[in-house]
Amino acid sequence: MTSVSSVARTGMSSGTVNCDAVVVGAGFGGLYALHRLRELGLSIVGIEAAPDVGGTWYWNRYPGVRCDVQSLLYSYSWSPELRREWRWSERYAAQAEILRYMDHAADRFRLRELIRFETRVVSAVYGEDDKLWTVRTDRGEAFRARFCIMATGCLSVPNTPSIPGLEDFRGAVYHTAKWPHEPVDFSGKRVGVIGTGSSGIQAIPVIAETAAHLSVFQRTANFSMPSRNRSLTEQDHVQFESGFAAYLESLQHTDFGRVPPTAATAPVPSREVQWQRYEELWQEGGGAILYAFPNILTHHGVNDVACDFVRQKIRETVQDPETAEDLCPTGHPIGVKRICVDSGYFQVFNRPNVALVNLRKEPIERFTSGGVQTSARHVDLDALVFATGFDAVTGALLAMDIRGRDGLELKEAWAAGPRTYLGLAVAGFPNLFTITGPGSPSVIGNVIANCEHHVDWLVECIDSMRRRSQQTVEPEEAAQGEWMEHVADVASRTLYPEANSWYLGVNIPGKPRVFMPYVGTGYRHTCSAIASEGYKGFLFDGAAKRS
Ligand code: NAP
Question: How large is the average pLDDT for residues 293-305?
Fold first, then answer.
């Protein structure tokens, strides 16, 4: 493999840059991959569409944006120095602070020098003869690399629904995931927000503070828990540090965000016991209600009580009974759409300048030059905010023209839904790795911990190939098929498939309905066992049989 310095030697002048690995994306996963691969002595090129590091945190700058995982946990765990140097100011960090953290990590580990910014990958094509990937960008550059690491993120392609008449609307139009860098002033404006997922629920209370009037267009009412965000104290940091080793250990077999093995046999707690626990968690703040009982995401009886609890809180909070009823989620279990964590969301509907438009009662017919026409009325607006989410998990991968063996297109291979082995690799696409790919726990739980695990695993795999002088690795079709069956089987034994969520891809018209994240337990053990059994299910230096 080429040495790090040889990339610089090859330079850009020849038109094609040779390197050992291309890493696409400079979010949490991409930055860590660059760091680890460089440590391994590989020559690497990072490619990032944005002008700077940050991934989803670079683009999502909407008012109120902050993380719904506690900041002490939503951090890299691999660097003790970084941990010592960095002090999070709040329990749930705001986007600006997360971006400062990522900036700091990129500088601290000299990662920027490896990255081509403002450069978008348009294609990645595997060459059978030289067993190399050719990665082309929208700047006309080409990179030839043995390994291609896709760290393109699960929530990086914004979704703007196609509703007739948008081109007629004369006001300003925003999307939460493509927010301008300069401040947006809503004062004196009549604003409409479409969408009440995590982004909308965070943005709405903040927009309401300045807008003359805010109309919230809600298609599906959502469960949300109060964050009870607060400043972190020295005591919080000391406590976290003292428990850090145990936290790292727990990551090896954590059930965080997943369905634990005890779910099937766990007793059904009484309504009283549940209610008391939910009240404690409501007061504590955050999304921990999903871990209150092992069977909350598998047992309707248990889940129903949690739903009732949150609905009661909504009714207690929202003064107007009709608005309160409209805000009560009814069509899906709690937690099977990603639970929201808010700061004053339900309270905002008590403000005189905020109105809920229930699209189940009056769907949007079209946009007009002056606002939104629903089936019941015209809502006058000066500005419109789409908080309508993402083409999640596969969107960024399928936006590129990726071709593996025999010109096989990823789009074709995934026509009926994404297929991977462990969410890390795809049959027919040698030496292509996906960080937080479909079929991995990805967005379930703490995505940074998942990114770190995926990177560590693939770096170890590449290192072992190097020691064995192997050139290619790819999953066997049979192993991939078994894994995907397992992913689907685990999901089918939970309540997850009961909501039309982005986990299933149903928010994007035409996207196959496939539950994408792995929600089982023991994922890390499985990955380690596969590696220690000689990468069982992977094929080295040979073309896998394709069905
Ligand atoms: P989302 O959860 O997919 O929510 C999109 C919202 O837009 C939903 O309310 C959806 O309604 C609505 N919508 C979509 N198309 C519509 C249409 N044609 N007409 C009316 N309404 C429409 O997207 P998101 O809020 O951006 O969140 C996505 C994920 O990003 C989250 O689940 C979370 O994982 C992550 N995120 C995290 C944070 C955080 O850490 N705090 C913040 C923001 C986002 P339906 O439900 O009816 O489809």
Answer: 95
